[in-house]
Amino acid sequence: MAFCSVCKFLRRGKYFVLLLLVLSVLAWIATFAGETMKSVQVSPTTVQTVHKGETLEGELNSLRSVTDLQNTPAPKVKCPEESPLLQGALKLSFESSLTLKDVEQENKAVAEGQYRPPDCTARQSVAILIPHRNREKHLLYLLHHLHPFLQRQQLHYSIYVIQQAGDATFNRAKLLNVGYLEALKDYNWECFIFHDVDLVPENDYNLYICDKQPKHLVVGRNATGYKLRYKGYFGGVTAMTKDQFHKVNGFSNIYWGWGGEDDDLRIRVELQKMKIVRPPPDVARYTMVFHKRDSGNEINKDRMRLLGRTPQVWRKDGLKNCLYKTLSIERLPLYVNVTVDIGKPQAS
Ligand code: BGC
After folding, report:
1. Residue 204 is part of a domain; what is its CATH number?
2. Distance between terminal CA atoms of the chain?
3. Which residues 6+ apart lie within 8 Å of 181 measured at CB?
4. Is the pLDDT assigned to residue 345 strictly greater than 70?
5. Which residue out of 291, 305, 315, 331 is catalytically annotated?
6. Residue 247 located in a structural domain
7. How far is the CA of 115 from the centre of ligand 1 (A)?
8. What is the pTM of this model?
9. N or C: which end of the chain has fewer CB within 10 A?
């Protein structure tokens, strides 16, 4: 009997353990479900956080675009027709102690010979071409005056010095053709100034820009009492647009030594029915830095004969057949130095 009661108890205990087991499983499920609920409840916060993040990012982005706007240079206005920086007649000085370093220091805004006005878009982009050989001091004086002069005129400009290599007779005109062709490889310059190294402009109202017609800028110079040398004089410093110069096939390549090449260019201009214009005489004034005639640039005795042939040969002789070998192109702080082998005089 007693044995039977034990058996009954054990059987009931089994159910009790089973019940306990079921209850703990339920409790565990309940706990797990609670966690899940909790995480579901957390999610809105997370969503909110993400949302907040997005807003912040948006705000940052709009801030960033405002800063970007501030950093992007505003489109520059066109420079005024008359620069407010012009000073008129200048007192020129030629200090023998001047060095290239001094001129570089004075023209920090010039890089590789080139300058753009900082506050406005220049009305013209101008390449200044200076043919050169062994005239370092003249070049230094010219650079010293020309850089600030051009900056006061608010021009986008670059200075090219074209050096004739070797000791064959000098050929100013061919060097200028080379300068034109080489400068156009750098930039689509709209205006070219063909500039002697020994002429320094005295008045910054003498604008180094091109006109509708070829322009002659040297009406007078100190050495000749500031008088135009003769009616058709077209030497020293001249300004022609890219198209005007192209139209006349540039300079002739066959004038070796001093004289005639500028008269030849005038004939080409006249043959194209263009008319030479000049600024007023009180403005177009130059100081010529004194020098003796260079050896290697003797007077060209053949020039009158050559001038007589210009109407027949200008189409073939010029930019179209300008053969040369560029020996080096140095981008110096104040100018681009193009050294070139242009050959030597050929019997013609
Ligand atoms: C020459 C020119 C020169 C002018 C002024 C003329 O006889 O042919 O090349 O520019 O004189 O010196």
Report:
1. 3.90.550.10
2. 151
3. 319, 322
4. yes
5. 291
6. yes
7. 32
8. 0.80
9. N
Phi, psi torsion values for 63, nearest 5 degrees: -65, -45
289 part of a folded domain:
yes
Give the closest residue to 113 by CA, choosing from 91, 92, 88, 139.
Answer: 139
Q: Which residues contact 96 (CB under 8 A, 6 or more apart)?
A: none
291 is catalytic: yes
Residue ranges making up the domain that contains 246: 100-341
**Domain total of the chain:** 1
Burial letters for 256-291: b for 16+ Cβ neighbours within 10 Å, e otherwise? bbbbbbbbbbbbbbbeeebebebbeeebbbbbbbee
Across 151-171, average pLDDT: 98
Tokens 């050096």: give the residue. 163
The one catalytic residue in 116, 144, 156, 196 is 196
- For residue range 192-248, what is the model confidence (pLDDT) as tens digits? 999 999 999 999 999 999 999 999 999 999 988 999 999 999 999 999 999 999 999
Q: Which two tokens stand for residue 8?
A: 């009954």
Ligand 1 binding site (Cβ under 6 Å of any ligand atom): 229, 235, 259-260, 262-263, 303
262 is catalytic: yes
Residue 313 binned pLDDT confidence (cut-offs 50, 70, 90)? very high
Instruction: Indicate which residue's Cα is closest to atom 3 of ligand 1.
Output: 259
In a domain, 7, yes or no: no
The structure tokens listed for 118 are 């900082």
